[in-house]
C-alpha cells in the first residue's frame, strides 16, 4: 500500500481491546458499523478475546509498547481509542508499569503524529485524576491524582500535551459500572461472603455511576461529536452517595448493610484502595449540548443496578 495514498476506508482503532472498557467499545463499534463496509475496526489486545471479535475485526495481539508503525500504514486510523494501561499488582509494580507506560505512550504518540493523516485520539482516563472533591468539578479542574491514579498519571502525561498535528481528546469516566471490576470486588464478593453489603467509611462520599456500555457509547460520542482537543467528563447518573448506592444494592439482593470504618478498610485492602473508596468524586461537564445529544442506554441508575445484578444472578 502506498503510505501517501488516502484510504477510502475509515479504520477505527481500539487499543486495549481485551480490557473491561475496550471490549465493550469494540462491540459498540461493531454494532454501529456492521452494515458499513467503509468502516472497519482494528482491535489491539494482549489477552484472550471473543471469537466473534477476532472474526469481525482486524485483531492484533501485541502489548502497548510493541505496536509497530507498519500496522498503522496498513490500516491508517481515522479514529484511535486508547483504553490500554500497563497495570501492576501493588504500588511498587504500578510505579514500574507507569514508567513503562510513559515510554510506550511517548513512542505511540510520535508514530501517530508522523503519519500522513494523523487520527483523532480519544484517551480513556478516569476521575481519580481529579482527586477528592466535595463539589462537582468540570473539565477545567486541575489534575491532582489520588489512589491508583497517583502511579498511573505518569503514563498519561504524553496525552495531556496538546499536539500540533492531531486532535487528542481526554475522557474521564466516573465510576464505571458493570458485572466486573470494582463492583464485583468491593460489593458483590464481600456481600456473598459476609451476607451484608459494605458501606465504606461514613458513606457520604459522592459518586456518579455510568454503565460500561454507556462509557463505550460516550467515548465514540467524544470522537464523532466532540470538538478539537478538549477534555470530556463521562458520567451517567445524578450524583449519589456511596451509602445510597450500597443500600440500593442490598435491597436488590435482599441483604442488610454493614459499615466498614476507615481503619477496617485500610487493614483489609491497603492504603491505595482505602483512598479510592473513601474519596468523593462528583463531576459535571462544560459540554452541556454535547452531553444532551447523547442517548443513554441506562439513564436510570437504580434500574441499571437491578439489571446488572439480575444478569449476574443467572450465572
Task: Please sum up the structure shown.
With 315 residues, the chain is an alpha/beta fold.
Overall geometric form: globular
Number of helices: 12
At CATH's second level, what is the architecture of the domain at 10-175 and 210-235 and 284-296?
A: 3-Layer(aba) Sandwich
Q: What's the SSE pattern?
A: EHEHEHEHEHEEHEEEHEEHEHHHH
Annotation, overall tally of beta strands: 13
Termini separation comes to: 47 Å
Question: Which strand-content bin applies to the residues?
Answer: 15-25%
Poorly predicted runs: none
Topology:
Elements: E1 10-15, H1 20-33, E2 39-45, H2 51-56, E3 58-61, H3 69-74, E4 77-82, H4 91-113, E5 120-124, H5 148-160, E6 168-173, E7 175-177, H6 181-194, E8 196-200, E9 206-207, E10 209-211, H7 212-225, E11 231-234, E12 240-241, H8 242-252, E13 256-260, H9 262-269, H10 271-277, H11 288-292, H12 301-313
Parallel strand pairs: 1-2, 1-4, 2-3, 4-5, 5-6, 6-11, 7-10, 8-13
Antiparallel strand pairs: 9-12
Helix pairs in contact: 1-7, 4-5, 9-10
Written overview of the protein:
It is a single chain. Helix content is 43%, strand content 18%. The chain is built from 12 helices and 13 strands. With 315 residues, the chain is α/β, with parallel strands linked by helices. It has a domain at 10-175 and 210-235 and 284-296: Rossmann fold (3-Layer(aba) Sandwich), CATH 3.40.50. β2, α2 and β3 form a beta-alpha-beta unit. The N and C termini lie far apart (47 Å). The model has no long low-confidence stretch (mean pLDDT 93). The chain has a 7-stranded parallel β-sheet with strand order 3-2-1-4-5-6-11. A two-stranded parallel ribbon has the order 7-10.
